[in-house]
Design goal:
Blueprint (H helix, E strand, L loop, with lengths): L1 H19 L3 E6 L4 E4 L1 H7 L3 H4 L4 H6 L7 H8 L3 E6 L5 E10 L5 E10 L1 H13 L3 H17 L8 H14 L5 E4 L6 H10 L8 E5 L5 H9 E2 L12 E2 L1 H4 L4 E5 L6 H13 L1 E3 L6 E3 L3 E6 L3 H7 L4 H7 L2 E4 L10 H16 L4 E2 L1 H9 L5 H15 L4 E2 L6 H14 L5 H20 L2 H8 L3 H11 L1
Parallel strand pairs: 6-13, 6-14, 7-10, 10-13, 15-16
Antiparallel strand pairs: 1-2, 1-5, 3-4, 4-5, 8-9, 11-12
Helix pairs in contact: 6-8, 8-9, 15-17, 19-20, 20-21
Amino acid sequence: MVDAFKKINSLKMLEAIIQTSYDGIYITDGQAKTIAINNSYERITGLKREQVIGRYMKELVESEVISKSSTLKVLELRQPVTLHQTFNTGKSALVTGTPFFDENDTIQMVVTNVRDITELEILKEQYKESKTENIKYKSLIEELKKQIASTDFIVAEDEEMLNLLMLSKRVAQVDTTVIIYGETGAGKEVLAKYIYNNSLRNDKPFIKINCGAIPESLIESEFFGYADGAFTGATKGGKIGTFEAANNGTLLLDEVGELPLSMQVKLLRVLQDGEIEKVGSNKTIKVDVRIIAATNRDLREMVEKGTFREDLFYRLNVVPLRVLPLRKRRSSIIPTVEYFLKKFNEKYGMQKTLSQEVLRYLYEYCWPGNVRELRNLVERIIITTPSDEIKLIDIPNHVIDAVDLHKGKTGVPAKLSEAVESLEKNMILKAFERHGNVRAAAKELGIDPSTFVRKRKKYL
C-alpha cells in the first residue's frame, strides 16, 4: 500500500515538473503514438491536447496538423534529431527529439523538447527596422566605433560591417550559439572575439580550436581530453580537452565544416546534453560552454551532399552571421591600409608613406586573401622599401598585373590606335621599372635608347 502511494506521488511530481517547464515537451511511445504534452507546447504551437493525445505522429503529419516531425526521424535513425520549425502561432522553435531505449535496445519513448527562439527572430527584425531610423542609427554608429577602437581591430567604414557589428553586439548578450560564415582571412575570428568581449562571459576563458588542423585520429582527445592510461604513450594523469578548458567560457570552433562525420555525432551530443566523456573513461563531465562556430564552407550545401549532419547544422545555425569579403567592402580598404601602415610604422620605428598611385592600386585590387592578405602586404612593403615614400615600383607585380588586367576587361579601348597606345605605355613603363635604367629597358624591348626616352617622356 505504501509503495503504491509513493508511486502515485512520484507520477504526480513528474507531471508537475513537465508542466512547469518553460520549453515545450511532447512525448510519444515507441510507435509514435502521442501520450503526453505540456502547457508550454500548447502555448508555443497553438495545438491543444485533444488534437494530438492518442493520435499517431504519422497521421498528424499527413493531415497537416503538424508540418514535420522529429519523432519520426528519431524512430528512423534511432538517435537524437534536431529540426527548426515555425508554427501557426508565428513562433519559431528549435525542436529536438531524443529516444529512450529499454534493456532490449527497443525504443520505448521519444521525448521532444521544443525551445522557443522567437525572441531571437524578433531581434533580427528589430535590427532591420533600425536601419530606417536615421538618427538612432547614426548614434549607434558612433557608439560602435568607440567600442571597436577600445577592443579588437575592426574597420567599420562601410554600412554592411556596421550593421553586422550592431547585430553581433546584441546577440552577444544572449547566451546562444552563433555561426560566422566568411572567406578565409575575412575576419571571422576577430568578429568572434568582438562577440566574446561584449558577452556576459568576457571574464571567462576564450579558446579557439581549428577543426581542420587536427588529424582525425586525434580530434576526439583534443576536444574531450583523455583519462590516465587511455592509450600507449598517453600523458600520465591524463589530459583535459578543449571543452573542459573552456568551461563557463566561450569556445570558437574554427573551420567547423572540416569536422569528419564521426566527430560531428559526438559534437552534437555534447551540444544537446552539455556533457563530455574523456577518451578511455566512462565518467561524464558537465560543461557549460558558449559555442561560436566559424566556417568558409557552405554548410547547407554540405548537408544536401551528406557531408555535414542536418541536425548539427540546425544546432549551430541558430544565429548565422556573415562577414563580407574585402572586395565587397571597398570603402573600408583605404582605412584598413592606413591602420596597418600606422601600426607597422610604430612597430619598426619608421615613417613610411604611400603615394596616391599606390593607394589607387590597393583600392582597385580584388584582395582574394582579404584583410589577412592586406595586412601581410603592408608589412612587407614597409620592411622592404628603402625610401620613406612607397611608390608603385615597390608594390608586388601580381597586384599591379591583377588591377591592370581588370581595367583592361572593363575598359576596352574604342579604337585600335588607343589599344596600341595603351599596350605601348604599359610595356615602356614596366620595362623601366624592372631595370631602372634606359639602356637595359630599351634592349629588352628591341628599340633604340633615344626612342625609348622619347616614348617614356610621352607617357610620364
